[in-house]
Specification:
The complex is a heterodimer of chains A (about 475) and B (about 100). Helices cover about 60% and strands about 5% of the residues of chain A. With about 475 residues, chain A is α/β, with parallel strands linked by helices. In chain A, strand 2, helix 15 and strand 3 form a beta-alpha-beta unit. Chain B has a domain of about 45 residues. Classes of the chains: A alpha/beta (about 475), B mainly alpha (about 100).
Chain lengths: ~475, ~100
């Protein structure tokens, strides 16, 4: 097959991928967009198989069969609540593949004895480095989200210095490899250090900052693919890789803005750990939050006309989304207008809450973004907070000393009544107490989100 | 193919801009599927894996390429399938909402 034909096929592939991404912009066209992008990928794969240099089809077939089987099993078995770790894991595989390809290419040059020229050495270095950081970083993110290891920030004295030194040595090795690619020892050192760096960069980041980390790793996997494109001189790879890189950067920025923190603060601030110590220092305040039963709440709900439900990670942990949907139904049967307020960083990945509620058949026009719904809380009879904490903490508006000061929050405290379903009075991820819980118009309902919501459903039904 | 590094760099920079333009329009509602969908696209590195594994000579590179194919295929197949599963949930359920809307504020 001629080179020209293959090049044109890559162009078609890139166009399909871009159009597919464009279609992902609306719920109506998104499923089609996903398949258009998949078709674009298929075109690129078929074009590659038709290239002259590709002859060992047995190896390829074996790899594709094994990979597809694992991919299908993962994609069909995974629960929606586990989507963040699924994305992290898949992302890791993409990064790992890029490192392997960079290594395979370098070994080809080494075998022939002719060093790579032009941008290729730099691209090999970047493909290896970014791919390896993505690989181990994603695996750690996966392990944290899956709770195979502790989800909280792991910090130790001198951590920044260790990471900084390691980064410097890595850069040194990268320069060594790029200037003399055929000496392989520095390359193996680079690979090993990059893998280690991925681990060390993600362990100090706590659970609630995961939306940022996953977005960023997503961006990295795209950039790694891009570097592979430069290694192979393949424009199709460069285009697709940059698309993913761009999408990851945008989501990273959206997530950081939603927490009013800079990317450096998220990555190197070790937020959860640092804040916890300061919170325990100021723990002298002894105010008592009022605990209520679901039956008490049901009476107030039945006298309401409007309700805004604020879901958080607690809803995901308790798998409460179907119960919440049931509550929405029963409230609407009683003439209550129910909507959902979605904070951008609620959950463990961008859009996490939307997916869970969609799974429970909540129509997406009931899900309202923070900026749109915040002005409506003062006219709302009941705000119901389910397993969210820091994103509804009014201190973020007023307390200059608070670690979360300046973070955009959902103004639930301005609703006439606020119900908060929470397991206990333990502080949220930021480690700060939430004055919302002690407000006169706030009623706490303690317990597991799913159990409490089901009791609420029952209690509202009993009122008939 | 892309022997000229300047040409490759041009494509890279322009594609980043296209990416920003296309993706900035995706609403937060669809951020998770966007993420898993773009994640699947990053599996495009499978092209490199195919080239590494498909070369005639059976060497270390072939086997690295083989593992790379497995990894990239998991990424691609798993990514597109799971995105499709999620997007299937965002379909509007017709008729289910008629009563609810009338009570609206």
């Amino acid at each position: 097959m001629s080179d020209l034909f293959v090049q044109l096929a890559y162009l078609v592939s890139a166009v399909l991928l871009i159009v597919g991404m464009r279609f992902l912009g609306s719920p109506k066209t998104a499923p089609r967009g996903n398949w258009i992008a998949a078709a674009g990928m298929a075109v690129a794969v078929i074009a590659t198989l038709l290239m002259r240099g590709v002859v060992s089809f047995g190896v390829i077939l074996a790899g594709v069969v094994v990979g597809s089987t694992i991919g299908v099993v993962l994609a069909t078995r995974i629960q929606m609540t586990a989507m963040p770790q699924m994305v992290a894991l898949l992302n890791g595989f993409g990064g790992g593949a890029s490192t392997l390809v960079a290594t395979a290419e370098l070994l080809k040059y080494a075998r022939v004895g002719a060093p790579p020229t032009g941008v290729v050495p730099i691209a090999i270095v970047l493909g290896c480095l970014i791919g390896a950081v993505t690989f181990t970083g994603s695996i750690i993110a996966f392990a944290k989200l899956q709770e195979l290891v502790s989800g909280s920030a792991v910090t130790y004295r001198g951590q920044q210095i260790v990471n900084g030194l390691l980064a410097l040595v890595t850069i040194g090795l990268a320069v060594a490899v790029a200037s003399d690619p055929l000496t392989l020892a520095p390359y193996w050192g680079l690979t090993a250090l990059s893998l280690l760096l991925g681990v060390l960069l993600v362990i100090p980041i706590g659970g609630a900052d995961m939306p940022v980390v996953i977005s960023l790793l997503n961006s990295y996997s795209g950039l790694a693919a891009c570097a592979t494109g430069f290694v192979l001189g393949n424009g199709g790879l460069v285009i697709s890789g940059s698309l993913v890189g761009a999408s990851g950067i945008i989501l990273t920025k959206v997530m950081c803005d939603a927490m009013n923190r800079s990317i450096t603060n998220v990555l190197f601030g070790a937020f959860g750990a640092a804040a916890e110590t300061s919170a325990s220092g100021q723990g002298g305040e002894q105010r008592v939050a009022k605990g209520y039963t679901p039956e008490d709440a049901a009476v107030i709900f039945s006298n309401s006309r409007s309700c805004i439900i604020v879901p958080g990670y607690g809803m995901a942990v308790a798998q409460a989304q179907h119960a919440v949907r049931e509550l929405e139904n029963v409230l609407e049967e009683h003439g209550v207008d129910v909507r959902f307020a979605i904070h951008p960083v609620a959950g463990r990945m961008p859009g996490h809450m939307n997916v869970l509620l969609a799974e429970a058949d909540v129509p997406y026009d009931r899900l309202v973004e923070m900026d749109e719904i915040n002005s409506e809380f003062p006219e709302t009879d009941v705000a119901l907070v389910i397993g969210a904490n820091d994103v509804v903490n009014p201190d973020a508006r007023t307390e200059k000393g608070s670690p979360i000061y300046g973070m955009p929050i959902l103004d639930v405290d301005r609703a006439h009544h606020v119900f908060v379903i929470k397991r206990s009075m333990n502080p949220g991820f930021a480690g700060v107490q939430n004055p919302l819980f002690f407000n006169d118009n706030t009623m706490m309902i303690f317990g597991d989100a799913k159990g409490v919501v089901l009791k609420l459903v029952e209690a509202v039904r009993q009122l008939d | 193919m892309l022997e000229n590094p300047a040409a490759a760099l041009t494509i890279f920079v322009l594609a980043i801009f296209v990416g920003f333009e296309v993706i900035a329009k995706v609403p937060p509602l669809l951020h998770t599927p966007l993420m898993s969908g773009s994640n699947a696209i990053s599996g495009i590195t499978i092209v490199g894996a195919l080239l590494a594994a498909g070369a005639e000579d059976h060497t270390v590179s072939t086997w690295l390429g083989f593992v790379a194919i497995v990894f990239a295929t998991i990424n691609v197949v798993g990514g597109f399938l799971v995105t499709d599963r999620m997007l299937g949930m965002f379909k509007k359920k017709p008729g289910g909402r008629a009563g609810a809307k009338s009570g609206g504020a």
